[in-house]
Amino acid sequence: MSLSNDALVFALGYLNGPRAKLSFGGEGAQMAITPRARAALDELLAKGYVEIAAPSDQIPGREHYQGVARDPHIGQLAREAGIDPFGKETRWTTFEKIAEPESPAPSL
Questions:
Q1: What φ, ψ does residue 47 adopt, rounded to 5°?
Q2: Do the Cβ atoms of 92 and 9 come closer than 8 Å?
Q3: Please, which of 6, 30, 36, 67 could form a disulfide with 15 given CB 3.0 to 4.6 Å?
Q4: What is the DSSP letter of 61?
Q5: In the chain, count of helices (H) and strands (E)?
């Protein structure tokens, strides 16, 4: 089974194996997943390397994911694809700060 380089990089960084968990978003979140990272996460879900996890908190709208043990494992796929986990191709933005809404100007 092949995965895109983006999916491999995302999995190596966040969801490499069954003990790895990732939660983000929801009410009051200050960071949001980027479109590129969302596409990588969606690919990992579709190919069975990630699953939706039980919530570990009660924040409305928060997303929870967990890595899955699969053969071939993410590390092996990354090696076969020639990905250097410390190389430049692995350095892209996965989460970005959510812009603060502008507050109304105080009335004088």
A1: -95, 5
A2: yes
A3: 67
A4: T
A5: 3, 5
DSSP character string of 64-96: EEEE---SS-HHHHHHHTT--TTSGGG---SEE
pTM here is 0.86
Q: 15 and 50 in contact (C-beta within 8 Å)?
A: yes
**Hey, how many other C-beta atoms are within 10 angstroms of the C-beta on 71?**
6
Considering only CA atoms, which of 37, 38, 45 is closest in space to residue 94? Answer: 37
Rounded distance between C-alpha atoms, residue 64 and residue 69, angstroms: 17
φ/ψ of residue 86, rounded to 5: -110, 10
Summarize pLDDT for 42-64 with one digit per residue, the tens.
999 999 999 999 998 999 999 99
